[in-house]
Amino acid sequence: MIFMSIRKTIFANNEFYHIYNRGVEKRDIFMDESDYKRFLLSLHLLNDVENGLMHIWKDIKRMEADKVQPRVDPRLDLRERMHNANKLVEIVCYCLNPNHYHIILKQKEEKGIEKFMQKLGTSYTMYFNKRHKRNGSLFQGKFKSIHIDSNEYLLYLSAYVNYNNFIHGGSKNWEYSSVQDFLGERNGTPCDKDVILDQFRNVDDYKEFLDNNALYLKEKKKIEKYILE
Question: How many structural domains are present in the chain?
Answer without folding.
Answer: 1
